[in-house]
Amino acid sequence: MARDGAIYVCQSCGAVHGKWSGQCSACGQWNSIVEESRSAPPGALKPAATSRAKGLNFETLQSDTPEPPRIVTGVTEFDRVCGGGVVPGSALLLSGDPGVGKSTLLLEVAARAALAGRRVAYISGEEAVEQIRSRARRMGFEKAPVELASATALRDILGTLKREKFDIVIVDSIQTLWSDVHEAGPGSVTQVRACASEMVRLAKSGGPAVILVGHVTKDGQVAGPRVVEHMVDAVLSFEGERGYPFRILRAGKNRFGATDEIGVFEMGDGGLREVSNPSALFLGEGKDRAPGAAVFAGIEGSRPVLVEMQALVSKSAYGTPRRAVVGWDTGRLAMVLAVLEARCGISFGDQDVYLNVAGGLRINEPAADLAAASALISSAMDMPLPQGCVVFGEISLSGEIRAVGRAEARLREAQKLGFDQALSPVLTVKDKGVKVTAVNRLSEAVERISQNRY
Ligand code: TYD
Ligand code: MG
Questions:
Q1: Which range of residues forms the domain containing residue 31?
Q2: Least buried of 146, 197, 317, 414, by fewest C-beta within 10 Å?
Q3: Which ligand 1 atom sits closest to the C-alpha of 135?
Q4: pTM of the model
Q5: pLDDT tens-digit readout, 337-351
């Protein structure tokens, strides 16, 4: 039964329902309906109220006061993903699977910033102070003047933070905080939302930069409400494939910087190591490339990255052939297979197809189409690509190879890493630096790979 004054709002589409139900009838989402109090019914502003209202002071876009300088933490990969350091008074959410290394990353951020003279508080509701100390020892940061506390009560935390002036406050994690104003338990939607909103308000009212840790649920959402993502200025996600030491920091939303920037780290015994030249990591081992491997010259954020794409095409043992992809989009693979079939006459109908991106990276660029196709062709024909060759280009449904952005940067990175050849769309770049084999159509790529002609 609906309680008096309560409404039920779908956190996914915003539809308002009279009673709670497991599935939103408006958008079909499950478990997204949450009770909210009807404190401000929509459209409740009485006409008389507007006559008493104060006028707004409109301002110009231009401002004389310079922006406050960013807090450069000294963890270069982290700073870059933030857009050049943390913005004072901003709120940031770091999300990721449990165990991926969020606490390790933020302890490193805290320690380096503190060593650089910033005042940093690290408040953990997940671990005891002694556990954090032992992690700091392992990482070699036991001397860093970080102010540690183990706390979960929002009232105590806010009380302290309003008195003390910190530059950065890290809260690990938002799911462990609880506010005594609400009855719901820690980690519930109501608590997470209330605590996040108080912490964001603290940051916005001239307070410290607040970094909140958020755990991710199985289906990849920040546990609790998506609303935390809307409240904060930036959402960074920390990702890594199980079994690989590499961790990738990605900006999903950033009011103060680009969202396509990534930071690459390697998890080792002594904490996280920053990887300033990720290409070497994602190239796979050894120089000799077997049939089915193609090196994609990609761009991640502002940086060119070379990464090996591996394909395996083999006769299917069952009626329905398998399609398995790691690190790339399944839909995109289906498209490339369909184009290879329809425009180039290569049939995969009775073949299992596996595609893997080396090193645990996830590629989102359409420019990877030609590299994936080349890996597939190479595996299907059992013909390796030339050893020093990189590949990039977008494939259209008609089988054309289309130009992609930043070709020059891609070629330069290839040259820097000892590659001397590229399979690509027709380029307008003057100084190519490597031998370029330009193809207009996918069928040309098939011919060249199968005849080893470049
Ligand atoms: P942690 O930062 O606790 O993850 P999260 O906060 O995201 O849950 O790190 C968890 C993993 O990292 C844990 O399995 C151990 C590993 N690790 C290392 O391999 N080396 C290290 O130096 C540290 C501190 C952790
Ligand atoms: Mg943790």
A1: 1-38
A2: 317
A3: 24
A4: 0.78
A5: 999 999 999 999 999
